[in-house]
Amino acid sequence: MIFRFVLATAITAAIFTSACQNKPSNETAGAAPNAGAPTATPTPGASPSPSTTLPPLPAKFAEVTFTDVTSQAGIHFKHNNGAFGKKYLPETNGSGCAFLDYDNDGWQDILLVNSTSFADAPKKVNSVMALYHNNQNGTFTDVTSAAGLAKPIYGQGVTVGDYDNDGFVDIFVTALGQSRLFRNNGNGKFTDVTAKAGLTSPGYFSSSAAFFDYDKDGRLDLFLCNYVEWSPETDVFCALDNVKRVTARRRNTRARVRGFITTSAGSSSTSPRRRGYSTLRVNR
To answer: Which residues, including other chains, have CB under 8 Å from residue 132's CB and lie 6 or more apart?
Structure first.
């Protein structure tokens, strides 16, 4: 018993002595430590300053090219601005387009906004917007009629967003005259719900719009940007010797409508029938 105790004590002492002799060191053999060198003290919460030196520019940039594959992709859209010789102001505007995955298949589809003929045109062209479904192979199929979007509108711009939070993106098309809200039914078809949503504006000349949640209530609101007051009767013919143009008039209005509250920014009149101002439609 005494022998075992002495043996264990001797082994423990040997291990302890070996560990003390092998102390860690980052110093190079034979080099004396610099006792006078300052020791860096880390500052709590401090982060290194970013480098202000930018990497050098390459001597030559890679060439970026694009190939027109419109016809190859099956896109055969032609915009109609309704021109027939009178040079109306709206002819110079339009039109918008949007990429959207309207059927939630993970592939971006294309919506192209179109205009149409003016009421006093001697020859009418029944042009409509175009919705192209992505075939997932680099080509598209025109599904405008099947989707319920073959509506003659003097379209200007478009914005897309899921305003009713059903998981399917909806479409709002701005126009000369009545802009339109098309609700996505979730089955490849759309329904015109403009009047139901309280978005009637038959006399407006609307140019662009945007869906956004301005009050953070989880529902998309609508900002509608209107251009100027215009009609065929008040149009000013513009030529080299006549450069007069229609003047925009702005005013302040607020009107309560079903589904949305309409607000406008401007200066004086309170008549909701006057046009030429931007409106914010609040989703309720």
So the answer is: 74, 75, 77, 109, 110, 111, 112, 140, 141, 142, 143
Which residues have a Cβ under 8 Å from the Cβ of 257 and sit 6 or more positions away? Answer: 198, 199, 200
**pTM tops 0.70, yes or no:** no
Q: Identify any residues that bridge with 98 across adjacent strands, giving them in sequence order.
A: 111
How far is 102 from 131, CA to CA, in rounded Å? 10
Cβ contact 276:226 at 8 Å: yes
Q: 52-88, pLDDT tens digit by residue?
A: 788 888 888 889 999 999 999 999 999 999 999 899 9
Residue 5 sits at φ, ψ, to 5 deg, of -65, -40
Summarize pLDDT for 12-62 with one digit per residue, the tens.
555 444 444 444 444 444 444 454 545 555 555 555 566 678 888 888 888
Q: Burial code of 112-151, b = ≥16 C-beta within 10 A, e = fewer?
A: bbbbbbbeeeeeeeebbbbbbbbeeeeebebbbeebbbeb
Cα of 21 vs its chain's centroid, Å: 69
